[in-house]
Design a protein that fits this description.
This protein has one helix spanning 111-117, and strands at residues 5-7, 16-24, 34-40, 58-61, 67-72, 75-82, 89-95, 101-102, 105-107. It has 124 residues and is mostly beta strands. The protein has a single domain, classed as Immunoglobulin-like (Sandwich). The strands form two sheets. Strands 1, 2, 5, 8 and 9 form a five-stranded mixed beta sheet that branches.
Length: 124
């Protein structure tokens, strides 16, 4: 079993666990989906000491069960999730010390791709 757990170099701040699962609209796991973690520095330059973040975007990939995990410094982050043939999704999250966060994504098949491939698109 391959586990995609990324631990960044240590600093003075506690690491926060971010985990989640990426599925399609029917609930099936999407393996090898890309999860881009982008730090939002809002407030960090004016004294908000709980928004430490990371300086460069972090790219994660889901495992065969659609799961992703990372340990990050506390802060505001934008999570961008994409996978072939699906419409991407984005959410803003707040990681806090001693508060693991689970963020799941349900991607929908992109109608443009489905039309080009000649498939019906499932809609809820």
């Amino acid at each position: 079993m391959i586990l995609f757990l990324l631990t960044l170099p240590s600093s003075d701040h506690t690491r926060c666990l971010l985990k989640g699962k990426v599925t399609d609209e029917l609930g099936a796991a999407i393996s090898q989906a890309q999860v881009t973690v982008h730090w939002d520095p809002s407030g960090s330059q004016v004294g908000l000491t709980t928004n430490v973040g990371i300086r460069e975007d972090l790219i994660l990939q889901t495992d065969k069960l659609g799961v992703f995990k990372a340990e990050l410094p506390p802060g505001f982050y934008d999570l961008f999730v994409s996978s072939g043939a699906f419409s991407p999704e984005c959410k803003k999250v707040r990681l806090k010390e001693n508060a693991p966060l689970s963020m799941d994504f349900s991607l929908r098949v992109n109608p443009l791709v489905a039309k080009e491939l000649g498939h019906e698109v499932y809609t809820k």
